[in-house]
Amino acid sequence: MKNIILFGAPGAGKGTQSAIIREKFAFAYISTGEILRSEIKKQTELGKQAEEIINKGQLVSDEIIVGMIQSFIESHPNEDLLLDGFPRTEQQARALDGILASQNRGNATVIELKVDKEVLMQRLLKRAEIEGRKDDNETTIKERFAQYEAKTAAVADYYKAKNAYVELDGEHGTPEQISVLLCKTIENL
Ligand code: ADP
User: Fold this and answer.
1) 143, 55 contact by CB (below 8 A)
2) Residue with the nearest Cα to atom 1 of ligand 1?
3) Is 84 exposed, middle or buried (0-12, 13-18, 19+ CB in 10 A)?
4) What is the topology classification, in CATH, of domain 3-179?
5) Under DSSP, is residue 162 helix (H, G, I), strand (E, B) or coil?
6) Ligand 1 atom nearest to CA at 36
7) What is the pLDDT of residue 181?
8) Dihedral Cα 54, 47, 17, 131, nearest 10 deg
9) How far apart are the first and last CA of the chain?
10) What are phi and psi of 29, to 5 degrees?
11) Which residues of the chain have pLDDT under 50?
């Protein structure tokens, strides 16, 4: 079974590419960011807890996120997995390993979309105008980059050490051109 982690800094194109991939492959798909935004919209307990953290550009606790992922994986036992926005800390990556092992699902592979930081900032500011996401303002974006560098970049190293890491150019080319490379990579895994 495939367990794919679509990885990259904020604005790298994980959500865009996930949508394209899902038209071609039958993945069980989870975006932790999307789930959190929907919880905020519904103002559930979790949503209320997460709202302030997300609007500041910080990370929601590993405990909450891992619980969410665990129940998702357990409820999709025989499907290939596509994870978007998770794991975002080394502790989340270790927890994921444990969940996959306990479900006999094999290992996870990271595919990272690499994009220059200046380009990321431009993309996110442009998205702010179109989608109006509350965390897409310059101050929050800078904090999201800082969190990414302090906590999330280590996740790539964690999978590199396991030989379970592939890097793709997420910058040059249209989303469709990038998706062609991404689909080939997925087919070859
Ligand atoms: P982006 O990748 O553009 O920053 P996401 O939609 O993936 O956006 O995430 C938005 C916010 O949701 C993050 O800044 C963070 O606060 C929270 N979040 C999402 N996934 C996680 C996670 N795995 N661990 C902790 N916080 C998360």
Assistant:
1) no
2) 10
3) buried
4) Rossmann fold (3.40.50)
5) coil
6) 12
7) 97
8) -70
9) 10
10) -115, 135
11) none
DSSP assigned state of 109? E
| CA quadruple 32, 79, 187, 26: dihedral sign | negative
Return the residue matching tokens 């980059």: 145
Per-residue pLDDT, 134: 92
C-alpha span between 23 and 30 (Å, rounded)? 15
Q: Distances in Å between the alpha carbon of 56 and those of 73, 186, 187?
A: 29, 34, 38
Strand partners, 4: 82, 109
Domain boundaries, the chain: 3-179
| Overall residue count recorded for the chain in this entry | 189
Q: What is the rounded CA–CA span in Å between residue 147 and residue 153?
A: 9
Ligand 1: does its nearest atom lie under 6 Å from the Cβ of 124?
Answer: no
* Ligand 1 atom with minimal separation from the 85 CA: 7
Q: Whose CA is nearest to atom 2 of ligand 1?
A: 10
- In eight-state DSSP terms, residue 7 is E
pLDDT at site 90: 98
The residue type found at 126 is K
Distance 33 CA to ligand 1 centre (A): 5
- Residue 111, exposed/middle/buried by CB under 10 A (0-12, 13-18, 19+)? buried
